[in-house]
Amino acid sequence: MVIVIQCTDQVGLIAKISGLLAEEKFNILSMHEYVDQAEDLFFMRLEVDKQSNGILERKLRELLPQDAIVKINPNPEKKVIVLVTKEYHCLADILIRNYFKTLGAHVQCVIGNHINLEDICKRFDIPFHHIPFENSSAGFEAQLLDVIGEYEHDYLVLAKFMRILSSYFVSRFPLKIINIHHSFLPAFAGANPYRQAYERGVKLIGATAHFVTNELDEGPIIAQQIISSDHSLTASDMMKAGKEIEAAVLAKALRMVFDDRVFIYKNKTVVLE
Amino acid sequence: MVIVIQCTDQVGLIAKISGLLAEEKFNILSMHEYVDQAEDLFFMRLEVDKQSNGILERKLRELLPQDAIVKINPNPEKKVIVLVTKEYHCLADILIRNYFKTLGAHVQCVIGNHINLEDICKRFDIPFHHIPFENSSAGFEAQLLDVIGEYEHDYLVLAKFMRILSSYFVSRFPLKIINIHHSFLPAFAGANPYRQAYERGVKLIGATAHFVTNELDEGPIIAQQIISSDHSLTASDMMKAGKEIEAAVLAKALRMVFDDRVFIYKNKTVVLE
Amino acid sequence: MVIVIQCTDQVGLIAKISGLLAEEKFNILSMHEYVDQAEDLFFMRLEVDKQSNGILERKLRELLPQDAIVKINPNPEKKVIVLVTKEYHCLADILIRNYFKTLGAHVQCVIGNHINLEDICKRFDIPFHHIPFENSSAGFEAQLLDVIGEYEHDYLVLAKFMRILSSYFVSRFPLKIINIHHSFLPAFAGANPYRQAYERGVKLIGATAHFVTNELDEGPIIAQQIISSDHSLTASDMMKAGKEIEAAVLAKALRMVFDDRVFIYKNKTVVLE
Amino acid sequence: MVIVIQCTDQVGLIAKISGLLAEEKFNILSMHEYVDQAEDLFFMRLEVDKQSNGILERKLRELLPQDAIVKINPNPEKKVIVLVTKEYHCLADILIRNYFKTLGAHVQCVIGNHINLEDICKRFDIPFHHIPFENSSAGFEAQLLDVIGEYEHDYLVLAKFMRILSSYFVSRFPLKIINIHHSFLPAFAGANPYRQAYERGVKLIGATAHFVTNELDEGPIIAQQIISSDHSLTASDMMKAGKEIEAAVLAKALRMVFDDRVFIYKNKTVVLE
After folding, report:
1. Nearest residue in chain C measured CA to CA from D21
2. Measured between alpha carbons, how far is D18 from A65 in angstroms, rounded to an integer?
3. I want to staple D7 with a disulfide (CB 3.0 to 4.6 A). Which of A111, B228, D68, D111 is the partner?
4. What is the pLDDT of residues C151-209, one digit of tens each?
5. Residues D123-172: pLDDT tens digits?
6. What pLDDT sits at residue C43?
7. Does A231 contact D200 at a Cβ distance shorter than 8 Å?
8. D64-94 per-position pLDDT tens digit
9. What sign has the CA pseudo-torsion C93, C95, C97, C99?
């Protein structure tokens, strides 16, 4: 059973929590905690050896500061909707992990603004909805919301979804949208990061998985990775090389999020790995 | 103040320890713990906000299992003796950190079986002892022991010391000798690892910092790192490239050891970073 | 058009080759060469801007030393057979790239000694042959050879195929079998490398793609990669973490091989990237 | 002997150059070339086995396009002036390499706007000039120029020099000033990059060595590297961790520049390693 806690820091919090668990005969299998001393915030993730009957959560809340967020076994079977455009590599990685049950979540459906990834979804028996972008962002997003509304979901995953979503849309899913951006953010935010990277002559290419907020490419970062580049790579070579890490970075971020290891505050994440 | 604990695991250990600290009004600044469930062993490193008057150590020992090893502020000013041969890069890195007081230990003296690193030691006012190897290992080691005996020391650091030490010698300093080996151990143990790596055609070159035990290059590993290689590197190019990471890996291992973050058991280390 | 050349080194080889190409009005798009000076061997890979009518190859052979191996557009559409056991990650990566035509080769069929990867192959319309291992290695390999014989193929890819192949079998496909080994070879050759790595307490986990020769895990290395590990990973955690790089390393090695960038000599590879 | 060439691309350039070298009985030890096809530019670095008597340079110029820049053995003993503020790690690394003659250049003097690195320079018999910043940038730079004027020099190295130099100053040393910036540029240009990185919650910390141009932190990048970070690092921890790679990245960039491997065009570098 997983327990996650986020609250104002206090002297003796760890003693209280671990004392309660010992008292209630839970054996701690793993425990990760972090205190942001500047912000006076306490974060903890525990794995214990048996399921709770509900009493534990109540007792924990009594022990902890008023502002405590406590989640016990938060949604062990997460549900996700994946949004794509044309590039296959992140989607395929997700579909494979979903198929072999190593994603840590269940893919409910895939929505594409192009049609070309429909076939791969069909091969895995995942519903694919084609919503082409036609003229208006408002009309497009209304259709997106309609389809999304048909499915239960915990997260939306933008797996190389190349359209910018409006503030209104994003505000409907606060900290529930995960994006893979093909650069080492905050370098090269916005469109065409590989073109920008090529022109700047960087010696490393990056990828960043982050939560989406109203500020484009400015949400809390979950995972980042880089690979070497050099003068001999054109913008298109960089794009090709980048794909290999984009899928890996997104996979890692999803694993962390679905495994309840990611806490968010102040536009940052704490990832208790 | 740093507290390190190693003992048999028990339910409620964290609760007991953190409870005691809260009771005694210590605020925990950082806490890292690890349980090896296969071996049933508990490891912990704490930093707390004030110095103890000795009572804490006694109370901790009462709380913990009989086999507990508890160290409070273990030797905050470690003393080390560095052994070298001809290569300068690891020694120079240590001397620089020693001079700027970022080594986490004090270099007492340097012993070289060649004379060529004497001058750099003199420039930093560090005593240098030249003990050439002449015929017999026994005679050589007797002289080493004599010089080592002149200085207080917590650790011996083999900073590219290219002579093999006897079991007898090693047994005099159990888990107190730290070596940098120029390969990704256990690949390429023994002499000439770069020659071996070149002949095997590996695509990565490694370096390993480890404690020295009687088995050559078989002691507990503290830190490892690699860099890319390819067909175009000769054994001598690899050696040159390797130097850059050898110094970095040794520096990291020393930082971890001097900072009391390294626990040893079963020929392995737990490094609570 | 791709041209690859391997021969004894001579003064003026580059001048001769590039002179001939200029004379014949080929524009060089990319050129990579390497001279192993110890072995006196010359390797070159060229991309030029138009197709040859056969005359070029003849003229090249006239120019070059007698022992020259010259290949012009070697098999632009490679065909491969993939052998698997139970683990899906490397196979799935290959099937996805095959499906999206970014593998650089065509997967003819998959052979598994277990049945559980049949479904994923079917989903991609790739023939799957189940050949269970029953008692005798000879009988097993005879069946393998029968199935392999049914398909044209340039390479056999062992994508986590967990049975050891006999010398006889291997000798039938000299330097045509590519394996992914789940360690940083030559460390942890043989069975259970993650168990070995766990027991040795290494701080890095590796994966190695190599050609298979008669010596188990001793063939020429094509690509290697590592990720960080630490004390907190069990052998099974290491295995899970390792999968992420196994698929990446194998993918890279296949890309290099299928793209005619890999030369073999003296149990080593030259990879002209 | 090293030969570097930069010119407009032409069909047959490699043939011409290598033909001439063969004719003149030079044996090519290593050859690296790169063509930027978008810009139609050709770059080459050669090492040959004997010294030229001057005829080769003349003949090369006759062969090559009018705009060709040809350098033969460009300044085999480079001279550098190092500018520092308070941080020692990059300077110490340079002084050590200078002392052991592995820097590829000779350090003429060190100029510091603080006094605290004087002693380390003295220990290596390197002149140290203390020029404190007092009120006016103009006055400060005038003094810098005076001291710099006293020494022959090929490059100025800003080894954690924390003052911004004026356009006027920079224009006096076009593409002759090398800086180490403590972030993965273009992310976190300007002051306090670690503070910025901390606030943005990045999961990687970078360092960038680049030529200085009039645009602050916008000059051609020579080398970059990153290390992992996470939520647990404060801005000051990041600074400490960053130092380890800053020295490494600057060392690599200097090695490439001093070894005549770096070509500059369009605010980018070509590094022929």
Report:
1. C12
2. 76
3. D68
4. 999 999 999 999 999 999 999 999 999 999 988 888 888 888 989 999 999 999 999 99
5. 999 999 999 999 899 999 999 999 999 999 999 999 999 999 999 999 99
6. 96
7. no
8. 999 999 999 887 789 999 999 999 999 999 9
9. negative
Chain A neighbours (≥3 Cβ pairs under 8 A) are B, C, D
Q: Average pLDDT, stretch A86-92?
A: 97
Structure-token pair, residue D134: 């007092």
Q: What share of chain C is helix, strand, coil (3-state, %, to 5)?
A: 30, 30, 40
Strand ordering across the sheet containing C41-48: C28-36, C41-48, C2-8, C69-72
User: Strand, helix or coil at B72?
Assistant: strand
Q: D36-45: per-residue pLDDT in tens?
A: 988 999 999 9
Q: How far is A73 from chain B (nearest CA, A)?
A: 21
Instruction: Output the six-digit token pair for C256.
Output: 């290099």
Q: Which of A196, A198, A178 is nearest to A187 (CA)?
A: A196
CA distance B131 to chain C (A): 34
Interface contact A221-D202, CB threshold 8 A: yes
State chain B's maximal CA–CA distance in angstroms.
Answer: 63
Residue A123 gets which letter from DSSP? H
Using alpha carbons, list the distances in angstroms from residue D155 to D106, D120, D178, D179, D204: 10, 21, 7, 11, 30
Cross-chain residue pair D231–A267, CB shorter than 8 Å? no
Give Cα C137 to chain centroid, integer Å: 24
Q: Which of A49, A125, A217, A259 is catalytic?
A: A217
Residue C91: phi and psi, rounded to 5, are -60, -45
**Do strands C268-271 and C262-265 pair parallel, antiparallel, or not at all (unpaired)?**
antiparallel
pLDDT at position C216, please?
76
Residue of A nearest to D39 (CA): A234
C-alpha D258/C-alpha D246 separation (Å) is 18
Spatial separation of the C-alpha atoms in residues A144 and A130, rounded to whole Å:
10
The alpha carbon dihedral of D56, D59, D63, D64 has a sign of positive
Whether residue C244 contacts residue C180, with contact meaning beta carbons closer than 8 Å, is answered with no
* pLDDT tops 90 at residue A37: no
Give the tens place of pLDDT for each residue, B36-93.
Answer: 988 999 999 999 988 877 889 999 999 999 999 999 988 778 999 999 999 999 999 9
Q: Of the candidates A14, A27, A30, which has its C-beta nearest B18's C-beta? A: A14
Q: Would you say residue A216 has pLDDT above 80?
A: no
Q: 3-class DSSP state for residue C14?
A: helix
ipTM of the complex in this document: 0.93
> Are the C-beta atoms of A159 and A250 separated by less than 8 Å?
yes
The reported pLDDT for the residue numbered B80 is 98
Residue D34 DSSP label = E
pLDDT at position A190? 85
Residue type, C16: K
Q: Can you tell me the distance from the alpha carbon of B199 to that of C121, in angstroms, rounded to the nearest whole number? A: 39
Say if residue B132 is exposed, middle or buried (CB neighbours under 10 Å; 0-12, 13-18, 19+).
Answer: exposed
| Residue A91 · residue A82 · CB < 8 Å | yes
Pairwise CB contact (< 8 Å): C224 & B230: no
Q: B89-99 and D89-99 helices cross at what angle (nearest 10)?
A: 140
| Residue B234 to residue C38, Cβ atoms within 8 A | yes
Q: Which residues contact B110 (CB under 8 A, 6 or more apart)?
A: B81, B82, B83, B84, B91, B117, B121, B126, B127, B128, B129
Residue segments in chain C with a per-residue pLDDT below the cut of 50: none
| CA separation for the pair B13, B6 (Å, rounded) | 11
Could you tell me the pTM of the whole model? 0.94
Q: How far is A125 from chain C (nearest CA, A)?
A: 10
Tell me what pLDDT residue C173 has: 97
* Eight-class DSSP state of A166: P
Query: Please, what are the domains in chain A?
Result: 2-72 (3.30.70.260), 78-271 (3.40.50.170)
